[in-house]
Structure formats: C-alpha cells, structure tokens
C-alpha cells in the first residue's frame, strides 16, 4: 500500500450526514477505541526508509491521534521513542507502545499531567534516562474545549487548563529538554490552523496556538547558534479523540467538510510533516518555520 491509499481511505471514512463523521461524544481526554470510525494512524501504510535511524524522540500526547501516528512513523524510520500522556490514557499508550515494539524500536512510557512543571521535568528525565539521551522533542500534547461559546462562557478553570496544557507545558518541557539537546537536535511543536483562521468557539485555544507559532520562531532564533532547530506543524481538522471529546455533535457531523479538499485528515496523514522536520538529512537547514497540513486552508 502507499500514501494515496491512505488518502482514499481517509475520504471514505467521513460518512456523516453533513460530510463529516457519525454523531458521537466523549469526555476528555478521549479514547481511540470509542471513536467511530477508529482513526487511521498509518498502521498499514507507513513504510520506513531509515530517515531517523538511531535517533531518540520524546513525543508528548504520544498515546493517541497525531502523537500516535508520529510515534509509529518515527519508530519505522529507526527512532526509539518515549511517550508522554495522561495516566488515564494508559490503554491508548500501551497500544502505541506495541506498534513501536513491532518496529523493533525501544519505547519508554512516561505518564503524568504536564500542567505541573515538576511533572514536566520528571517526564523529560525519565525519557532521557530510558532512551540514553534525546535528539527530538515533539511538543504535541494539547487540549481545547468548544462546547461553550463566547468569552463569558470561558471559565477560569477552562482558561487555566487550556493555557497550562498548551503553553506553560510547552515552556516547561522545552526548558527541561534543552539541558539534554545538543548540536543536530530539534524541537517540533504542534500548532493549528486555529493560529491563522481562529474560530470564535475556540478563542482561548486559538490564542495558545498563535503563541506557539511566535514561540517557535523566537526560540529558533535563540538556539540556532547551538545548532538546534525549532519548527512547528499546523494541522487542519484531523480525526482524533480530541474532537468527539470537545466539539459539539453538530460540529462532528460536518468535521472537515469546509476544507478545500472537502474532508478531515487522518492522523497518519500528518506524520510525514514531523518526519521531514525531524530528519537531519532532509530538514537540516529548516528552522523557525510552521508547516501546514490543513487540507488546503491557508497558513499565512
Ligand atoms: P489527542 O487527544 O489524540 O492528543 C492530545 C493528547 O494531549 C492527549 O492524548 C493527551 O495525552 C495529551 N494531553 C492533554 N492534556 C494533557 C496534560 N494535562 N498532560 C499530559 N498530556 C496531556 O488529539 P490530537 O488531535 O492528536 O492532538 C494533538 C495535538 O494536535 C494537540 O496539540 C492539538 O491541539 C493539535 N491539533 C489537533 C487538531 C485536530 O483537528 N485534531 C488540529 C490542529 C491541532
Ligand atoms: Mg489521548
């Protein structure tokens, strides 16, 4: 099979009344098995060619969705990986870990809530000691909430959770990891189309993603002299547990239909951007950029 097979399958997976997915709801953090249809993380399609041979990567939010697809692709490209996730996501993390082991690579499991800076430091230390070092940090954990609309409906509790998970943890994880990253290493952050085309229902989330773009460019300027590259991937609508866990049902039914390609993407369709940015041979001179994987929505 090849990647066009995944695109064809991705188009066939959206069968909701409005061009999206069947009506469904979950609670955060969401689970993969409860999704209908279960997302495609490239399990049957990604073919590794040794582009990340011998590298060591920590992927936050690595249990499910985009993080799982990145873990599978990284492992098949020859990298050992550590996965960070919330303790209640152990089942999803075990499934991802099994795919990494099937690719004959080592995997380190690092559960913990990254809203706490001590946990961030512990996760980095566990990953570094388990992998014997770190070459790539993928700051991919993130949360949104879109069932209450309007600034008056954004509680302080929600604001704290969204900003701490998406931004504070980004600073804390990066600060802890930089102690271990040397020349040739890189950081890849997960941004969003929401940084460029914000939805009013995601006022808080979209602001964090715009900040992640700014952080990416600015940190790239700071650590460039140390030979460390910093980039971001900005996905469009991707079918992951985050969506049924945070969007209202009517948004799920039409999820992704408003993109130029007319459909949502599958997590496996985003992994290639991360592999490219992580690969020293292909992206050794790429830093401070935000790469869109949006189904055609503009990222400028
Ligand atoms: P997902 O739910 O599969 O992954 C998000 C992960 O974040 C969770 O699995 C969880 O492990 C982790 N996480 C959340 N809160 C955490 C906390 N407090 N501590 C530790 N880990 C925590 O969904 P996904 O869509 O794959 O999300 C991955 C990233 O992609 C997020 O940053 C999200 O904002 C971004 N993104 C997603 C989409 C989309 O349409 N799915 C679009 C643009 C950007
Ligand atoms: Mg998850």
TrEMBL record:
The keyword Cell wall biogenesis/degradation does not apply. Belongs to the short-chain dehydrogenases/reductases (SDR) family. Residues 1-38 are annotated as: Disordered. It comes from the Bacteria. Keywords: Oxidoreductase. Gene3D superfamilies: NAD(P)-binding Rossmann-like Domain. SUPFAM superfamilies: NAD(P)-binding Rossmann-fold domains. The lineage of its organism: Bacteria, Bacillati, Actinomycetota, Actinomycetes, Micrococcales. This is SDR family oxidoreductase.
């Amino acid at each position: 099979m090849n990647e066009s097979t995944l695109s064809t399958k991705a188009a066939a997976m959206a069968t909701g009344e409005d061009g999206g997915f069947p009506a469904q709801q979950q609670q955060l953090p969401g689970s993969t098995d409860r999704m209908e249809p279960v997302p495609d993380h490239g399990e049957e399609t990604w073919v590794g060619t040794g582009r990340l041979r011998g590298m060591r990567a920590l992927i936050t939010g690595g249990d499910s969705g985009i993080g799982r697809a990145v873990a599978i692709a990284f492992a098949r490209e020859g990298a050992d990986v550590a996965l960070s996730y919330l303790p209640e996501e152990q089942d999803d993390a075990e499934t991802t870990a099994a795919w990494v082991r099937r690719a004959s690579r080592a995997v380190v499991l690092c559960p913990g809530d990254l809203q706490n800076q001590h946990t961030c430091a512990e996760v980095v230390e566990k990953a570094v000691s388990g992998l014997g070092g770190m070459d790539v940090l993928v700051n991919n954990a993130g949360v949104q909430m879109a069932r209450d609309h309007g600034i008056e409906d954004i509680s302080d509790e929600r604001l704290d959770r969204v900003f701490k998970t998406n931004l504070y943890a980004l600073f804390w994880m990066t600060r802890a990891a930089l102690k271990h990253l040397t020349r040739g290493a890189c950081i890849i952050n997960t941004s969003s189309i929401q940084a460029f085309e914000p939805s009013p229902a995601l006022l808080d989330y979209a602001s964090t993603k715009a900040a992640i773009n700014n952080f990416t460019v600015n940190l790239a300027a700071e650590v460039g002299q140390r030979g460390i590259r910093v980039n971001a991937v900005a996905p469009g609508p991707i079918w992951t547990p985050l969506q049924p866990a945070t969007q209202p049902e009517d948004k799920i039914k039409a999820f992704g239909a408003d993109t130029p390609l007319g459909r949502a993407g599958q997590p496996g369709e985003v992994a290639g951007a991360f592999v490219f940015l992580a690969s020293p041979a292909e992206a050794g001179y790429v830093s401070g950029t935000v790469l869109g994987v949006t189904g055609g929505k503009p990222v400028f």
